Amino acid sequence: MEPPLKKVKTGIGLVSAWPKFSERVDENEEKEFFLDEGYVKLIDFLSPDEVGAIRSELDRYQKEVVPDLPPKRAFFEKKDDASSVIRLERMADFDDYFKDLSESPAFNGLADILLGVDCEPNNVQFFSKPPGAKDTPPHQDGIYFMHDKGITFWLALDDVDAENGAMSYIPKSHKLGELKHNKTDQLGFSKALDEFPESMKKDAVMMEVKKGTLLGHHPYTVHIAGPNKSKVRWRPALGLTYWAKSCRDDEELQEKHRNYEKKLMKELKEAGKI
Ligand SMILES: O=C(O)CCC(=O)C(=O)O
Ligand SMILES: [Fe+2]
Q1: What Rg do the C-alpha atoms of the chain give, in angstroms?
Q2: Ligand in nearest proximity to the CA of 168
C-alpha cells in the first residue's frame, strides 16, 4: 500500500471534509515534542486556500452574526466601534461553519492524539489584535480551564512577528504545574501570572510564523504576547480549545465555570467594559 500523502491540502467545502491531521503532520514526532516542550509549532498546517476560506467565513461571521450576539460573546477595544473587535467567544455555539471546523478531524483528531484521550471542542475564539492592541499578559490556560485535561490550538490567519504581537512560549513550563495568578482589569485576559521571573523570560521562544501555521499548547505552558505596535497590520488568530470528554460529566467543574462566568460578566458590566 502507498504511504499516506503528507501535506495534501484543499480549500474546498466544510473543514470536516478537509484532509485530517495525519496527512498534515507526523503525529508521533509532534506528540513527543509536545510532551517534552509543552507546545507544538506546525508550519504550513493549512494551505493559503484553506486560510482564505476560514478568513472569508470569519468576515461573514463578523457582518452577520456579531451584531446579534450577547455582549459577553464579543469584546471591543472601543465599546461602540464594531471595527475594534479584540475577541469573539464561543463561535461554535452561534455558527455551523465554526462548529464543523471545531469538530473536524484536522483539529479535534490532533487534540485526541496529542493528549492521548478522546477530546471534544470546548471553545472557538477569535483572538484579534487590532493595531495598537495591548499585550497579552503571561498566563497558563489551565487557570481558565480549572483543570489540565485540555489543549489550546492557535491558528495564525495572517503573518505574525514581533511588530504585530507574536506569542511566545516558555518551553517545558508545563512541567511546573499550576502557577499562582492574579486578577487583571484587562478585557479578555482576566488573569496574569503573579510572578514572571527573569529565568522564565530568558527562555521565551517567540512564535514568529506565517499564516497557516498552527500552534498548540498544554494548559500549564506559560505564554505571553506582545502589543500590536503596527499602525496598520492586524494580528488575526483563531483559538480552538479541546477538553477531554470526561470533563463534560464533571458536574463540580461545570458549576465552577458557570459561577465564574457570572461573576466575571457582572464585574465587566459594572466597569462599563461590555
Ligand atoms: O492571541 C493571544 O495574544 C493570546 C492567545 C492565548 O492566550 C491562547 O491562545 O491561549
Ligand atoms: Fe492563553
Answers
A1: 18
A2: 1
Q: Report the top-level CATH class of 15-270.
A: mainly beta
Reported as a single tens digit per residue, the pLDDT across 65-110 is 999 999 889 999 888 788 889 999 999 999 999 999 999 999 999 9
How many CB atoms neighbour CB 94 within 10 A? Answer: 19
Q: Does residue 6 register a pLDDT over 90?
A: no
- What separation in Å is there between the alpha carbon of 139 and the centre of ligand 1? 9
**Best substitution site from 40, 127, 243 to test ligand 1's pocket, by max atoms within 8 Å of Cβ?**
127
Euclidean distance between the first and the last CA atom of the chain, given in angstroms as a whole number = 57
75 bridge partner residues: 87
Where are the domains positioned within the chain?
15-270
Residue 237 beta carbon below 6 angstroms from any ligand 1 atom: yes
Q: Cell for 224?
A: 505571553
